[in-house]
Amino acid sequence: MRVARSAWLATALLLCAGALPAQSSPSADTKTSETPTEPKAPRSFDLSAIDKTADPCVDFYAYACGNWRKANPIPADQSRWGRFNELSERNRYLLYVDLKRAADAPKTPLQRKYGDFFAACMNTDQAEALGDKPILPVLQRIDSMADKKQLAATIGWLEVEDGTSALFRFGVQQDQKDSSQQIEGVGQGGLTLPDRDYYLEDNPHMQQIRTQYHDYMVKVLTLAGESDEQAQKDAGEVMEIETALAKASLPRAELRDPDKRYHIMSLADLQGLDPTFDWSAYLSGIHAPKVDTLNVAQPDFFKAENQVLSDQSLEALKAYLKFHVVNGAAPWLSQPFENASFEFFQKTLQGQDVQTPRWKRCTQITDRSLGEAVGQDWVNENFPPQNKESMEQLVAALKKALAQDIQSLPWMSDDTKKQAEEKLAEFRQKIGYPEKWRDYSAVHVTRTDFIADLRSVDKYELNYELNKVGKPVDEKEWGMTPPTVNAYYDPPMNDINFPAGILQPPFYDFSKDPAVNFGAIGVVIGHEMTHGFDDEGSKYDGHGNVKNWWTPQDRSAFDQRTDCEVKEYSGFEPVPGVNLNGKLTLGENTADNGGIHIAWQALQDTLAKQGKSIDEKIDGYTEAQRFFIAYGQVWCQNIRDQASRVAAKVDPHSPGMFRVNGVVRNFDEFGKAFGCHQGQPMMPTDACRVW
Ligand SMILES: [Zn+2]
Questions:
Q1: How far is the CA of 455 from the centre of ligand 1 (A)?
Q2: Could you tell me the pTM of the whole model?
Q3: Torsion of CA 389, 394, 399, 400, to 10 degrees
């Protein structure tokens, strides 16, 4: 099972799609799952969240969020809890209401489709009755391989018929040297644990996780019918294969460099790297259009893959494929599979106490699978048209502020400034929901066989992607569904995207003064725009092509300034003994720091137009203070240590605490607004500034 969208999407505001392993499988004791209840709408600018006993100049996060954090412990079915989660949970509930209604009494063919999908997901009696039956034919297909020559065709078959990817990742992407072209690409993949480091790091924490992973593999392979002895042997072989693939994989932080993801090759060249794997058989197996060249993102990975295929026995490779099939389906099979998956991926890895109620899981997977079907009804009910209009105005204000910011940069020459402005002028924006909705008529939904429904969605997604090859790029396509509480910048598209789901309190509330909105959604918009100019985005031009538009001096001044942020954030310690990876989080940190400057500038312009002063007080706080508090409160969050450890390895975003304190300490207007003096923690003498 795959059921994921936008596999190549890189720069979201929150966790990126694909950043975590197959967003595995919370699962519920469905017989006792809690009754859905409507969560309260989150408030913007929450005075009661402020902890006045904390000194904003020493720890602004403790000040802005202290009381919120005390009043909002992490629910047992979550691994983190923040303002984003409050809103996502509410959106999810409202989506659930639509799904339930469609499941019980559909009024349109589309409602029948997503209603049936949801109903099939909720049908746990059926899942119990079927046990491991839904995956048995797939396992038999793997077992029927007579020799390694059939491996490529089998992997292609698994991709199409079961939505299972193995050994590497295949996808369709814009050519980064010519963004008008859609090309086929293959890249490193084939792992199950969240990151290569989980296989390679030699310390007690990682060793323990590897032991627990081994036990999990044994558990689900046994459930799928293997003897304990066989399952032990298979688990050992899977670990060996995945460890070899991990060794051949580039670290996440290096993948931020577009050059490390791009090597155009002929099929014959790829075949030369990896002679043991029959690439023609694989590509024709997935029905990929015939092409002269494709992007082999990491050629060395495929040399290593070849070695793995030569070294490993056919039996070991079968074990690897079988485990990937079982693991992918486990969250949606009968209770013992579900529990095993929950115990390892949610409890052990993320620290989540109890399984997420079934209705939440089913709502989420329906959104992920048929998001632009149910999203149509959701936006009609939950996204007033005037929100889109006001948002257009805000984006325009932020664009103007970014242009001013570029002009004022002391470290950039006029030549590069001109190029940066040209890129900014090419920015496009998408707000709320797609102008044209996806056509899901090729998805076949039964009300009685959820695994079959998931496979149909996977097949549809694969065909949807393959159908892009050689065709013009669809600039109207979205990488997130309408109820999503998130936003993204897409470098090859050079566009910023804000789903309807995030355009609500605490981000967006037009009953509030401009300072509050610029501090919240304003910084979100500024953040996405700054991604166009972060360590990665700055390597793309306005047409979405990787092209150097910098003078060498300006590039080196930029690198010096981003190095300051790398050092600063590498010093932050989310869990004792665990530091952030300043290189992995550089793009997001640059976007946060740039975003607040731009939003601040846009607020100044707006207040000037209204004849108001930044020192004007509302509820006892100046407009300047309200701007920073609104910003800080977006990131109020509690997170379990386990989830924090995983995030430090895989998440390009810093945790809430550092998104707040790391940013305000770099911005002197913060110190001025709160009367801090130079040398205090939130007004240091070694602040970093890029944009
Ligand atoms: Zn971002």
A1: 31
A2: 0.95
A3: 110
